[in-house]
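Subject: complex prediction, re-run

Hi both,

The earlier run crashed halfway through, so I resubmitted it with identical inputs.
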Amino acid sequence: MLSRTFGALADPTRLAVVGRLSRGDATMGELAEPHRLTAPAMTKHVGVLVDAGLVSRRRVGRTVVCSLRPEAFAEVEQWLGDLTTYWNSTVDRLEELLRGDGDGH
Amino acid sequence: MDTEIRIERVLPATIGKVYDAWTRPDLLARWYCPNPKLDLKVDADVRAGGSYVVEMGPHVVRGTYLEVDPPRRLVFSWKWDGTDDEPTRVEVELTEVADGTRMLLSHTGFATAEDAANHRMGWAPEIERLAAVLGVRV
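This time it finished cleanly. Structure:
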């Protein structure tokens, strides 16, 4: 699985698509917009990501909406990030818990 | 770049509450992972020599408690399943201050600065870092 992921992400457009989808679902149009690619070319890139199990597509009316698959999200996390960010994000959640805790445990 | 990560925060709670958050599995299960979307399970035997397992979705980290000194100090080893990495070491020191509790977290024991920086189980998708690994620009 990791080598498929690596191959699928070893392309700047696909990397950017995964980055965009990590922030939320997007239509094929929204994904294509920042890149100077034809629709079929973008469809092909998304197809590679779908085959690698990173992205799923669904039809919503007449549009196709793409999402990052949760398993892939976790897998993508394996490659990314750094420890300072890891602990800062985790401690942010500790802070929220401590701040919001009103039940006097 | 250091081979050590240090995080310092003043947390808005008493030292006892902060220590509890770090040592009660039921409380750990509410925050102890950077990604709230992952299913978090914590099992911890918090005493010197006791062990813990934290499951964050598919990612599992384990270790042993090295020092347990309530409410001021907690030291434990840290190793992700599925890696050949040497265990690293996390130290949490708590001090009472005027507005709450100062927490100093140190994560040390990385072989190289790059290991410390490229800790595999990061959160917050940092596409730039992956791009650097793959030698592409985004």
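The radius of gyration of chain B is 16 Å.

- K.
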